Fold this sequence. Notes:
This protein is an alpha/beta fold. Among the domains are: 6-45 and 210-285 and 385-479, FAD/NAD(P)-binding domain, CATH 3.50.50.60; 109-198, Guanine Nucleotide Dissociation Inhibitor, domain 1, CATH 1.10.405. The protein is built from 13 helices and 20 strands. It has helices spanning 14-24, 67-76, 112-117, 123-138, 149-155, 160-175, 184-196, 218-224, 262-268, 271-276, 343-357, 415-429, 446-451, and strands at 6-10, 29-34, 45-47, 54-56, 61-63, 82-85, 88-91, 97-100, 204-207, 228-231, 235-239, 242-245, 250-252, 255-258, 288-298, 307-310, 317-320, 327-333, 366-379, 401-402. The strands form five sheets. It has a seven-stranded mixed β-sheet. It has a five-stranded parallel β-sheet with strand order 10-2-1-14-20. Strand 11 (235-239) and strand 12 (242-245) form a beta hairpin. Helix 1 packs parallel to helix 8 (218-224) and helix 1 runs parallel beside helix 12 (415-429). The termini are far apart.
Amino acid sequence: MTARQRVLVAGGGVAGIASALALAQLGVQVTLVETRKKLGGRATSFTDVRTGEHLDNCQHVVLGCCTNYLDFLRRLGSLDKLTWTREQYWIERGGRTSIIRPSFLPAPTHFSLSVLAARFLSIREKLALARAMNAILRADRSRWTNKAFADFLASVGQPPRLIRVFWAPVVISACNLPCERCCASSALQVFQEGFIANAHAADVGVSRVPLVELYDRAESIISAAGGSIRLGASIQSLTPRSITLSTGEVLNADKVISTLPAERLREVVSDELIASDPRLSVTTRVAHSPILGVHMRFDRPILSTPHAVLVDANVQWLFRKDDEGKSIHAVISAADDWLPLTEEQVAQRVLSDLHAHIPSSAQAKLEWVRPVKEKRATFALTPDFEPLRPGVMPQNPEGLILAGDWVQSGWPATMEGAVRTGYAAAAAALSRPAGELVVRDMPPSRLCRLLGLRSVPSPLLKDSPADHTPPAHRTSIAQIPTTPVLTS
């Protein structure tokens, strides 16, 4: 494909921006079409009408193992807008805190010293956790695709309390489903690649700026290649060669990449296209799982750490949003039970957990609260749906190219998965192997390989040459900060 040929990208979420950026930086004329008047999709920000503050829809976190999302930020010139920490703070009722952090030991033993010192786990639970992690290290996750992660935990004898205080909050936060509903192979991927394989895989990165500001340079990069971003442009229909807007305007191109959510894609494609492309029939079978983000400000400091996991609580995570700790963001994943609640009821539930786990917070006055309910935050990654996730490429080379977190990436519904499919879609539009754009995983440590950690190639790279990623498009591990860069 020459640079003068054109590609249309439907959807301005993370996958759409990633596709458009990759194409533009290769000299392709690309037009990105987004219904909203801002970029980011579900990973964006808004101005709160009551306070005038710029708030994120929900707190999004990047881990060190998210090689493609980090490359995405590098392309945007936004990599330096992240704050990194290597510690995870686990707070029990009463305020006792345990810090889980990597040590000098090589992966997969890097967390062992801090887990041994963790006070919220008993000796018996620590032994059970070590036994499970050893099983996860050696697990062939392809054998667990049709099982729930709860089945895996039962197979390795995990005690109920350990599941409740450790496994559940990690899985719910990463996959947005409880262990009983989450596809086991996806949860195993989270632990193998996010905790075990590399000592920097679980480093936590959080944006210091509103999420929407991470995408500030997207328009100039795309424009420099002769392309454009069409915001506030509602899509009425699309085909593998065109997009028709609600105004009646028709945009034509050589290739069309859809990064739309499954339910929206179903609304804009014809029955004939669905009949000719088996991947599109899946759009009627996608279920969703909600996330609730709660912005709160107090009259005095509440949270002294950058973030915290609340042990055995309804609220899974707290994030400090200012240097003082007066502004915090509470995250409740798989928040089905919270959706019917009023703003006041949400605030009371969050305050109940806060007061139980951070007793000093009971003396603080809540100045304002702003819950943000994302009813369709992610697709539900159940054992039934995981095998049905469609691929990026159509069977017909002239067909519609797909991307988005619900498309098969080898990852759960995450920004990393979205970027991976976005890059793979861009490569497909150029008739190139996905490996030319998709950045490979963090390499596992030598000890992990010796102990039997299985290497699972990304489904996006199955047909790619072993080392096609151009050096200019790689994100080196050296580019990821390895020491905490705190805002306070």
